[in-house]
Amino acid sequence: MPRFAPHPDVRPALVTGASSGIGRATAIALAGAGHPVALGARRVERCEAVAAEIRATGGTAVAVALDVTDTDSIAAFVDTAAAAHGDADVIVANAGDVQPGSVVGTDPERFAAEVSVNLLGVQALLHRAAPPMLTRGHGDIVIVSSEVARHPRPLTAAYVASKRGLEALAETLAMELEGTGVRAGIVRPGPASTEQGTDWSAADIDEIVATWSRWGLMRHSGALRPAEVAHAILTMVSVPRGTHLNLIEIQPQAPDAPKEQTP
Prior knowledge:
Largest sheet: 7 strands, parallel
Oligomer: single chain
Strand content: 5-15%
Strand order of the largest sheet: 3-2-1-4-5-6-7
Number of helices: 8
CATH class: Alpha Beta
Structural class: alpha/beta
Distance between the termini: 74 Å
Number of domains: 1
Helix content: 40-55%
Order of helices and strands: EHEHEHEHHEHEHHE
Radius of gyration: 19 Å
């Protein structure tokens, strides 16, 4: 596909996992800030709906089918986005999957499939999409992680392992990019209200919630809204040159405690 160089003030963006949740909110936030956005996910019809919403409000967006476990799919996503908007100057690696399962009890093939989405797919995306940034000496890469990389949650073993590995990848990447003009940082959300976990069985949910409570991992019922995480991502890519936000950790605020009634 033909490629073109966008105007220097225009910063095309790629967002993976953009069909719902944090990815969807991030695409909308970036488009609202003037970035032409390419939305990628397996549920491309949902990306199409988001892209249409962005265009209806004056933004620029294209939706492309994307499976981050398939290098041919990644190549088609990056090339289609470049043909539409020019080479990306912002990459938001957000695609992810979380399924219930212990270290011992999870089928190895399913464990590997989850790691492939959450970790290996990020490296494959950067291998394809980041070189033009290095050539230009300009760009931002945001790796969307999770608080589980810092505080593991039992019975989501593949997710925990892949997110901890993902942060190690991101930290290594930032070191390798130092002095190139390309910035890389981690956005690490706490509990968020997204579609992740909505396909779990009631029995799995009951067991996991009880286990997390026993380990003191559920302090309150607050949850981040996707738009709040998207705001952190937009902040990371928007800070002035000469500034580098390595990590933004965002947690939901606890609900207000009930006030004591005056007799």
